[in-house]
Write a structure and sequence with these properties.
Layout: E1 3-14, E2 21-32, E3 36-40, H1 47-54, E4 62-67, E5 70-71, H2 77-87, E6 88-91, H3 103-114, H4 121-131, H5 147-160, E7 165-169, H6 177-192, E8 197-201, H7 205-208, E9 213-218, E10 221-227
Parallel strand pairs: 3-8, 3-9, 6-7, 7-8
Antiparallel strand pairs: 1-2, 1-4, 4-5, 9-10
Helix pairs in contact: 3-4, 3-5, 4-5
Bound molecules: adenosine-5'-triphosphate (ATP).
Adenosine-5'-triphosphate binds at residues 14-15, 21, 23, 41, 43-49.
Protein name: ABC transporter ATP-binding protein
GO molecular function: ATP binding; ATP hydrolysis activity; transmembrane transporter activity
Domain ABC transporter: 5-230
Length: 231
């Protein structure tokens, strides 16, 4: 097994002076390739901030993030954009779907941005939409979908590009229990087939059970790392 992500001594302070908020401090975390890892913690404990930093969407105040052996803080802005495009799939709470595009067009848009060859598109679109059980809604636009369906569309878009790493902020938060378990099963299959590594946040202990490791965050610090019973 080899390391895909290593966060070293991460600190993130928002603002300055009296308004400074210490969102993260002394974060050390290592994630092996083809694992499914969860971050848990109360609201405001720093989970999203950490995902943003690992995903090269934000800079830590101190510390470094190593991705596949490269310190991403040494990359230029252009290289960071390319790194995100080529290596990372994001499933975030705002979903980031394009309102005027149907489910399949949104997934296609993700493939186009990631630079996946055009001849692959149809297969990948059908496969990923089918995996999240959204085929019946493939021709619908986001405003015609429920919150959970929009979330599954965002998941389909992220998995279609087969990124090395998927960062998912509460990916099952909008889903009913049955659908949430189905999505976790899809995540496990992707990880088992060695297609990807997934770091997700969740509040749900039942979802944590399905992961390889759970990191617990409290006030911006990792307080425990649990091995899941599944592996
Ligand atoms: N842009 C910002 N400016 C100032 N403070 C911020 C900013 N973003 C987050 N914070 C603060 O940083 C801390 C960590 O926030 P973060 O969103 O990472 O928590 P979280 O664990 O993801 O919470 P939730 O489960 O509610 O999404 C919180 O105290 C939050 O108020």
């Amino acid at each position: 097994m080899s390391l895909i992500v290593q966060a070293r001594n991460i600190e993130r302070i928002y603002g300055s002076g009296n308004n400074a908020v210490q969102a993260l401090s002394d974060i050390n975390l290592t994630v092996q390739q083809n694992q499914l890892v969860a971050l848990k913690g109360r609201s405001g404990s720093g989970k999203t901030t950490l995902l943003n930093i690992i995903g090269a969407l934000d800079y830590p105040t101190n510390g470094s993030v190593i991705f596949g052996g490269v310190d991403i803080l040494t990359l230029s802005e252009k290289e960071r954009i390319l790194h995100r495009k080529e290596n990372i799939g994001f499933i975030f709470q705002s979903f980031g779907l394009v309102p005027l595009m149907t489910v399949e067009e949104n997934v296609e848009f993700g493939l186009r941005i990631a630079g996946v060859p055009k001849q692959e598109w149809t297969k990948r679109i059908n496969e990923s939409i089918d995996l999240v059980q959204l085929s019946k809604r493939a021709k619908h636009r986001p405003f015609e979908l429920s919150g959970g369906e929009q979330q599954r569309c965002a998941i389909a878009r992220a998995i279609a590009t087969r990124p090395k790493l998927i960062l998912a902020d509460e990916p099952t938060g909008e889903l009913d229990t049955k659908t949430a378990f189905h999505v976790m099963k899809v995540f496990r299959e992707l990880v088992a087939s060695k297609q990807t590594t997934i770091i997700m946040t969740t509040h749900d202990p039942a979802m944590m059970e399905i992961t390889d490791h759970v990191y617990a965050l409290e006030d911006g610090k990792i307080v425990e790392k649990e091995e899941s019973s599944i592996t």
